[in-house]
Description:
Layout: H1 3-25, H2 49-54, H3 78-81, E1 90-91, E2 94-95, H4 98-108, H5 115-130, E3 136-139, H6 144-150, H7 154-166, E4 174-176, H8 188-195, E5 199-201, H9 204-207, E6 211-219, H10 223-234, E7 239-247
Bound molecules: zinc ion (2 copies).
Amino acid sequence: MSAAGLRERLKDAAAKAARGLCAALYPEGITCDLCGAELVADTRYTLCAECTGKLPLIEGHKCLGCGVPINDEADYCLRCQYTESVFRKNISPLTYDGEGKELVHALKFGGKKYIARLLGAMMSDAFIESGEEGEIVVPVPMSERERKKRGFNQSELLAEDVGGRLGMPVLPALGKVRDTRPQKDLTGKERAENLKGCFEARFADYIRRRKILLVDDVFTTGSTANECARVLLKAGARSVTVLTAAVTVPKNRVERGEDASEHRT
Ligand SMILES: [Zn+2]
Ligand SMILES: [Zn+2]
């Protein structure tokens, strides 16, 4: 190497070291992801104490199917009592209300991709706490048209973050090969019908006999998660557990997901 070349290299190395030092002294995420207040204390999540206090975090007794909080002693919520699912269960750190909804909206519609890190941290914590097992993280896919419209797939961003934290590989083992009608005006049964045949399994060799952790942003009726799980199991997966950032609270026997109308399900 020439002397000039060596000098260039040393300069690059010095610049890189300086950047690393800056990152250590002034870490990213020093402001609250919700209100923008400066974070003074060392916090688990990039949120101030006030915003953390307002989060609809799920604690205590919850539904064995979808993970939504339950007030009485029942094992299953109204949504899950009347639905059959092929996935093991859904795990969510948040209910889809208030600040929980705000965070998901900021990621999906506000283009704030960095929110995926915060939600990914909460999702990973909820997954570890659940005691469930997983070997490969698979995001719920979008069709080409849907991706073009939004520019990114929020489920992929969440899956990447969760996979990184849990040390699990992320595999796009599902593709959405057909566009579906908007789910908002459909009943649970129609939604399941609407989704039939829209997903296909990919990388079947890698998912065979594996425990899959299926990642999405919101769990509403569970019909998307169920259809994805059905396709993965058919391709040979051993089991599918669903991990989402937030779960909607069912209001009546047939959860129509009215207030999550902008979602796939
Ligand atoms: Zn805040
Ligand atoms: Zn439930």
